[in-house]
Amino acid sequence: MRLVVAAAATLLVVLLSQVDAGTPDVDAGAPEPEMTIEGFEPFAAGVARGVLVGPGETREGVDLIVNIPLDAALRVNLDHPPPLGGPNQPQQVRLRGGVDLGGEGVVHFGRHGLLPDPGRPLAGETVFPVGVTTSTIVDLPALARAVGDGSYAMQVGAYGPFGSAPFSVRMVKGLHDTGAPITVGDFVGVPRAVDPAPNGIASGRRVRFIPDGDVTGQATFHIHMLYDQQGNPVWRGITCDTMTSVELPDLSIVNHDYPPHNQPMTWVAWSIDAFGQYRDFNYRWLGIAYWNAYASNSFTVRFP
User: Fold this and answer.
1) CATH assignment of 190-301?
2) How far apart are CA 158 and CA 102, in angstroms?
3) How many CB atoms lie under 10 A from the CB of residue 217?
């Protein structure tokens, strides 16, 4: 297959599917129907690597051989996932993944580039029904040919409605063996507000939370952020793994009402498992590339 590339790219991926013989005929003068996920079942992929094309440039004659079978599968078991369905808890566990090619990018699982099918998971996304902790992910690219030096990577997370907070996500990388089940554990507990409680008033100039659920992951550090009703930042703090209660600054000495008295505020709490111990913390750890797992929740609160 030869392609014309007219966009910035270094990695090209094409999926090949058999033509659906049941597709109805289209009148010659009618516009071509938009292809959706329904009826498109790819069986092979082609990957071209190192295609250097700058913005606005066009490169012709890119040879792309569609010879990577989509016949691999991974059996995924969840170990002590976050609890679901309660107040201020995630609602659903989802898995997204791909073939990790390092600095060249990721070949995502699924049938991307097509219109989504309403009522079904997004392309490349596997949803675990509530109460189910085991699933087999099928139709994955085999680690062969153009992606033979890659590995499987995935994000497995418990999310709120539409992928929003509260959520707890586990990052898994460097998977090569599809012959044995993959156990995904060490989830970080979703922060659960204690003082102040959600929609409540704090007992003092402080914030305190506890990790929710019978999870086994341990956060390396926590981030707290307070915003006013207009979204302006009021306070931000970073604390170590064991410090889940934080005293806010006392600015009364300069006659400043802080935090603002009895005003609705948004408190966002993060718990993050990073590559190392807290004593080695640096600001690079604020980037997701340095995280093993993370969890977050947000609350509307007031202070006396």
Assistant:
1) 2.60.40.10
2) 26
3) 21
